[in-house]
């Protein structure tokens, strides 16, 4: 993509503001529906495995679309792409809000996903091309505000709405905002971009869809269906093989759909590795804490969402501050401090009890979010800063795709550990309880014992999963010590072009 503002004299704040609002509602929408799934099951008379497709399908479309955004960003203008994305999102939102049967709701959700998948890579790419590296941290801090704050506040807002309105109100709430953003984009969004004649390789698109889609579906289904399911390991195998073929094909193409040569830049490669590990660790609290709070403690979804709200607000406040600190001090010190806080708080989460206080959970979760706010955006920005400008679309698409895949892998891993350890603890606790019985228990006592053992076993399973997340975050901390402040590398094509001009000049003389 041609730079939106190649000389960095004045960033296009109007374009950025419109893109940010669009990206915010897209990210907010992604988590709004999770809390509403039980209500949708009851209202539309579908089972848990069916209703889960509203989340799984959304994620699959993202996994298929995001790798193609590198091509789309280079081929089309910011205006054209954004208006297409927000139009798809708006149509999907309206359709979902008036759906009365599940197939219509699912189709609407997939249309939404096709639009939202384009918005985040597009926004990140515009920010990279609009600000020089020394000012990019502050700008990316605002991006972090959307990237982290919107999904974090979603469950709280959703919980409040579901207590007062029908689940369709979640879509009716977003619809007018989406329409306003679309109209603003139509009348105010303008950008100049030379037409780039590149074509999309059809085989690359097929292999990418099978590769990333297969991995996402396989890992996201593992927690529910189990690792012994042929559907789980079958789709993971197909995904892995397709992904290998996709990567090999990209190296053969003159203009690849997704450029894997960006991994020859060490700071980008390191930032990708750290981001993958962080995404896996981050899901421990986002996934396991609601299970603990709602299933074991019996706290309502509304109070569960409110518990996470202070952490989300703190992270939102910290994102721009962290961006400014990144510009001044670089990414390494921020990542080390942030990951240390994340590891300590994750360790304390591994000590949850049946009577851990609500205020203790709020403080611990907020502290963990404070640590996380110092890691993700600085690490990602530092890696992207090393890439030549023409690789920005590929870098942003790669980061977004890897976060989707690593999030699915992290979720599957932690749910599997929790499930397996819960079974082990239940067997051990059951055997210990039977040893201490001096007489035959009554049916009522036996039922009460089973319930207590099940709760205690699940609690210990959750604690064990948090221990694993401590180990995962520790890997990221070790990698963070190798971070160096990145300087933009020379574009090999531009260097060759310059050398050729010198040779031609000498030949003329």
TrEMBL record:
PANTHER family: MAJOR FACILITATOR SUPERFAMILY MULTIDRUG TRANSPORTER MFSC. Keywords: Cell membrane, Membrane, Transmembrane, Transmembrane helix, Transport. This is DHA2 family efflux MFS transporter permease subunit. It is found in: Cell membrane. InterPro entries: EmrB-like (IPR004638), MFS (IPR011701), MFS_dom (IPR020846), MFS_trans_sf (IPR036259). Belongs to the major facilitator superfamily. EmrB family. Residues 15-488 form the Major facilitator superfamily (MFS) profile domain. It comes from Bacillus salipaludis. The keyword Cell membrane applies. Its main location: membrane. NCBIfam families: efflux_EmrB. Gene3D superfamilies: MFS general substrate transporter like domains, Multidrug resistance protein D. It is a multi-pass membrane protein. Pfam families: MFS_1. The chain crosses the membrane at residues 12-33, 53-73, 80-104, 110-128, 140-161, 167-188, 200-219, 231-248, 268-293, 305-326, 333-350, 362-380, 465-483.
């Amino acid at each position: 993509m041609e730079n939106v503002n190649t000389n960095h004299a004045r960033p296009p704040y109007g374009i950025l503001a419109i893109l940010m609002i669009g990206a915010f509602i897209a990210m907010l929408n992604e988590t709004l529906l999770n809390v509403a799934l039980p209500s949708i099951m009851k209202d539309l008379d579908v089972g848990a495995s069916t209703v889960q497709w509203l989340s799984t399908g959304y994620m699959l479309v993202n996994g298929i679309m995001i790798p193609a955004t590198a091509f789309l960003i280079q081929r089309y203008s910011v205006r054209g792409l954004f208006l297409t994305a927000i139009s798809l999102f708006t149509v999907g939102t309206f359709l979902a809000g008036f759906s009365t049967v599940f197939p219509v709701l699912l189709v609407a959700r997939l249309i939404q996903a096709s639009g939202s998948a384009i918005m985040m890579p597009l926004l990140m790419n515009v920010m990279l091309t609009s600000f020089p590296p020394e000012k990019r941290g502050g700008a990316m801090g605002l991006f972090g505000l959307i990237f982290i704050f919107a999904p974090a506040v979603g469950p709280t807002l959703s919980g409040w709405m579901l207590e007062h309105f029908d689940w369709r109100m979640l879509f009716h709430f977003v619809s007018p905002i989406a329409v306003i953003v679309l109209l603003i984009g139509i009348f105010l969004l303008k950008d100049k971009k030379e037409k780039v004649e590149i074509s999309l390789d059809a085989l690359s698109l097929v292999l990418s869809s099978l590769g990333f889609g297969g991995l996402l579906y396989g890992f996201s289904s593992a927690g529910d269906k189990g690792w012994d399911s042929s559907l789980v390991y079958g789709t993971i195998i197909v995904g892995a093989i397709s992904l290998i073929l996709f990567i090999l094909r990209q190296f053969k193409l003159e203009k690849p759909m997704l450029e894997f040569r960006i991994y020859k830049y060490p700071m980008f490669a390191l930032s990708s590795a750290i981001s993958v590990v962080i995404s896996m660790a981050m899901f421990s609290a986002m996934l396991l804490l609601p299970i603990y709070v709602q299933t074991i403690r019996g706290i309502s979804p509304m109070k569960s969402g409110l518990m996470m709200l202070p952490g989300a607000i703190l992270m939102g406040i910290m994102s721009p501050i962290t961006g400014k600190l990144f510009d001044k001090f670089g990414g390494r010190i921020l990542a080390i401090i942030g990951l240390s806080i994340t590891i300590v708080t994750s360790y304390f989460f591994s000590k949850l009890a049946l009577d851990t206080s609500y205020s203790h959970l709020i403080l611990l979760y907020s502290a963990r979010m404070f640590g996380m706010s110092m890691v993700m955006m600085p690490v990602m920005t530092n890696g992207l800063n090393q890439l030549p400008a023409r690789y920005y679309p590929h870098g942003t698409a790669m980061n977004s795709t890897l976060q989707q895949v690593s999030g699915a892998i992290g979720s599957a891993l932690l749910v599997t550990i929790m499930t397996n350890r819960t079974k082990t603890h239940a067997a051990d606790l059951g055997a210990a309880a039977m040893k201490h019985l001096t007489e035959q228990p009554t049916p009522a006592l036996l039922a009460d014992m089973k319930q207590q053992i099940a709760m205690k076993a699940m609690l210990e399973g959750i604690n064990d999963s948090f221990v694993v997340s401590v180990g995962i975050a520790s890997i990221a901390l070790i990698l963070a010590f190798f971070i160096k402040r990145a300087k933009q590398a020379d574009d090999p094509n531009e260097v060759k072009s310059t050398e050729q001009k010198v040779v031609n000049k000498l030949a003329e003389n």
